[in-house]
Structures are given as structure tokens and as C-alpha cells.
Design goal:
The complex is a heterodimer of chains A (114) and B (112). Chain A has 114 residues and is mostly beta strands. Chain A has strands at residues 4-7, 10-13, 19-25, 31-37, 43-51, 54-57, 64-66, 76-78, 87-94, 103-105, 109-113. In chain A, the strands form 2 sheets. In chain A, strands 2, 4, 5, 6, 9, 10 and 11 form a 7-stranded mixed β-sheet that branches. Chain A has a 4-stranded antiparallel β-sheet with strand order 1-3-8-7, with no helix packed on it. The termini of chain A are far apart. By secondary structure, chain B is mostly beta strands. Chain B has strands at residues 4-6, 10-14, 19-25, 32-38, 45-51, 56-58, 62-67, 72-77, 86-93, 100-102, 106-111. In chain B, a hairpin with a 6-residue loop joins strand 9 and strand 10. Classes of the chains: A mainly beta (114), B mainly beta (112).
């Protein structure tokens, strides 16, 4: 199994550009989520989804959009990139309600906004 | 609001000794408390969790203790090895949602 796959691994954007970070999981997990991790910091939740067609905001949602049209995919869109969005982004998936707390993380996307 | 925080940002341990990483939390409504390990350049990896109605849970070389009276969580690693070098995060979530709230992390380094 591939697990959670994130693309791209690295990206440099200019201020104001838009882009989509891709996340796919092949474990048939209900839950998916996006986090950002700044240097020396913990992970902060951006958006999450408890199933196809359902998304909700996390701790730091501003400047990001998500959609969940299929169980497998959960793309994160940056609408107009800002230097403050320079960070490492992690996608995660987990089984779903009542099935434990273990989340599986991708390898991350390192984003630099100049 | 919800918050999960750690007492110490770094911890240095002699190889072979036991490591104890501590964490304070503020949200008493959490269903699970979780420990993740993050190695350099990688995503976090689940280590162990504990339900809120338990006070101790053991895994392979790891033990998690939960003290709800003082809202304190700890991770004990027995016979610490070089491969245990990483940043350790405590986290909490609710079984009714996919939100996991992370603490700021403790970096564990191993002295030979």
C-alpha cells in the first residue's frame, strides 16, 4: 500500500500565485485532514473532512480552501499565496469515528512563498 | 479553547536509560490522548494512544500515563536507543471528529 501520498514534495511560489497541494490515500479512510508545520513548531490543523462531500475548518483555515469529492483525494488550494504561508504541509488520514485515534501522515510538501 | 502543551522543548538522555516526556493539556473533553514521533524530514508517526477513561497503557518499550486530576500526560520510553532520536508530540482528539490538536513538541536526543 502507498498509504498517504502528497505531491509535490517541494514548491516555490511567488506572492499572489495560486496552487493546489495534492493528497491521496488508498486505505479507504473516512477522515482526512491538512496541517501546516512551521520551523520548531507543532502541527496546526487547517481543514479536515469526515467523509466525501463534507469539510470543516480547523485552527488556521484562512487563505486555504479544500474539497472532498472522493474518499481518496483531499486537495488543498492556496488562493493567493503569501510569505506567511511558507511552511511544511502535511496531509493525514484516519479510519473514522469510533475506530481509534491513529492518523497516517504523508511525507509533507515544503512550500516557500517569495 | 483547546490546547495541548509540553513542559520542555528538549530532552537529552543517555543511551540505555529511560526517557520521560511530559505534556499538559487543557481540554478535559478529549476522548483520546496520543503520542506521535517525528523524525527529521518525515511526517509524524503514531506511537501510542490512551483513552480518557484509562490512566495507563503499555506498548512495546513505551508506556503512556494519563493523570486527569492535574491534566497531565507522559510518555515513557524504556532503554532509549539511538533510533528514538526524534521530536515527540502529544496530541488529543475526539472520537466524533477527525480533528487532532497537537502540542509544540519535545526534541529527544540520545547521548552515546
Amino acid at each position: 500500500n502507498a498509504g498517504v501520498t502528497q505531491t509535490p514534495k517541494f514548491q516555490v511560489l511567488k506572492t499572489g500565485q495560486s496552487m493546489t497541494l495534492q493528497c491521496a490515500q488508498d486505505m479507504n479512510h473516512e477522515y482526512m485532514s491538512w496541517y501546516r508545520q512551521d520551523p520548531g513548531m507543532g502541527l496546526r490543523l487547517i481543514h479536515y473532512s469526515v467523509g466525501a462531500g463534507i469539510t470543516d475548518q480547523g485552527e488556521v483555515p484562512n487563505g486555504y480552501n479544500v474539497s472532498r469529492s472522493t474518499t481518496e483525494d483531499f486537495p488543498l488550494r492556496l488562493l493567493s499565496a503569501a510569505p506567511s504561508q511558507t511552511s511544511v504541509y502535511f496531509c493525514a488520514s484516519s479510519y473514522g469515528e469510533g475506530r481509534g485515534s491513529e492518523a497516517f501522515f504523508g511525507q509533507g510538501t515544503r512550500l516557500t512563498v517569495v | 479553547g483547546e490546547s495541548v502543551g509540553l513542559h520542555l522543548p528538549t530532552l537529552s538522555v543517555q543511551e540505555g536509560d529511560n526517557s520521560i516526556i511530559n505534556c499538559a493539556y487543557s481540554n478535559s473533553a478529549s476522548d483520546y490522548f496520543i503520542w506521535y514521533k517525528q523524525e527529521s524530514g518525515k511526517g509524524p508517526q503514531f506511537i501510542i494512544d490512551i483513552r480518557s477513561n484509562m490512566d495507563k497503557r503499555q506498548g512495546q518499550r513505551v508506556t503512556v500515563l494519563l493523570n486527569k486530576t492535574v491534566k497531565h500526560l507522559s510518555l515513557q520510553i524504556a532503554a532509549t536507543q539511538p533510533g528514538d532520536s526524534a521530536v515527540y508530540f502529544c496530541a488529543e482528539n475526539h472520537s466524533s471528529a477527525s480533528k487532532i490538536i497537537f502540542g509544540s513538541g519535545t526534541r529527544l536526543s540520545i547521548r552515546p
